[in-house]
Amino acid sequence: MHAAGAPPVTVSPSTWPAYSAPRVGRRYLSIRAWTSLSSGSENHHYSRRSQQYWDKFYKLHKNKFFKDRHYLEKDWRSYFDDEIESSHGKVVLEVGCGAGNTIFPLIGTFPNLYVHACDFSPQAITLVKSHANFSAEKMNVFVCDAAKDDLCINIMPSTVDVVTLIFTLSAVSPGKMASILENCKKVLKPNGHILLRDYAVGDSAQVKLHGRNQMISENFYFRGDGTCSFYFSEAYAATLFQRAGFVIVDTNTYCKEIKNHSRNITMQRRWIRAIFGRS
């Protein structure tokens, strides 16, 4: 349902052929984008200051921008159905928890879980701790840049059953992703899992950013508010995790076509959903 007076929107699942963002020549790039490609994504202004821009984002939007992510419960049940039925004592870590839009619905569904949650934005952590459902007994929440800060400072090694990376890796430069995975691996139990959900190549937002010459490096872009976004192919994600010592349990690209009839706009949204196991 949509609110009275809101434009009608139709959402339908869809499957499209594989899509890659078009490569662009030097003459089609803005000076800023071309400079960043030449010097590497790590040295790009928005990449270097990602923590600053995300902190500014949460100060502005607080916990109102993202909807609660109840779909994680379905992903969890489909992959860990047996474990969830006896979830007492299970430990979950969310890296890049934002304002808590994943962890609070998760705890609401599975109250026996213990949750660690971190984010590199101090403002995001403040929002989580001020949430009405925050519980210091069931949650360990802390500021951490998982690309460089050792998670073992706040979490005992090899004690986490599941790590969730929900639209987290896409927010950092590709060069930092491997470090985050190595960090997560240290706190995962043997045979633990990482649940990944993130933006996929061909998403309508990527096409829009590409058309505006906001590319930092291949499949990595900066938005108007200074935050960044990477768009994954299944092959890229598989290679990234395998090189970090994980095995592929399942991976797929979820496609959804969203139509706004009053504005006559059709958006093709794509997300990658995958499970990787610690070998």
Keywords:
about 280 residues, alpha/beta, Rossmann fold, disordered N terminus
Fold blueprint:
Blueprint: E1 9-13, H1 31-39, H2 45-48, H3 50-61, H4 71-85, E2 91-95, H5 103-109, E3 114-119, H6 122-129, E4 139-143, E5 160-166, H7 174-187, E6 188-199, H8 204-211, E7 215-217, E8 220-222, E9 228-230, H9 234-243, E10 246-260, E11 265-278
Parallel strand pairs: 2-3, 2-5, 3-4, 5-6
Antiparallel strand pairs: 1-10, 6-11, 7-8, 8-9, 10-11
Helix pairs in contact: 3-6
Describe it for me?
With 279 residues, the chain is α/β, with parallel strands linked by helices. The chain has a single domain (40-278), classed as Rossmann fold, CATH 3.40.50. Helix content is 31%, strand content 28%. The protein has nine helices and eleven strands. It has an eight-stranded mixed β-sheet. Strands 7-8-9 form a three-stranded antiparallel β-sheet. Strand 7 (215-217) and strand 8 (220-222) form a beta hairpin. Helix 3 (50-61) runs parallel beside helix 6 (122-129). The protein is globular and about 50 Å long. Residues 1-39 have low confidence and may be disordered.
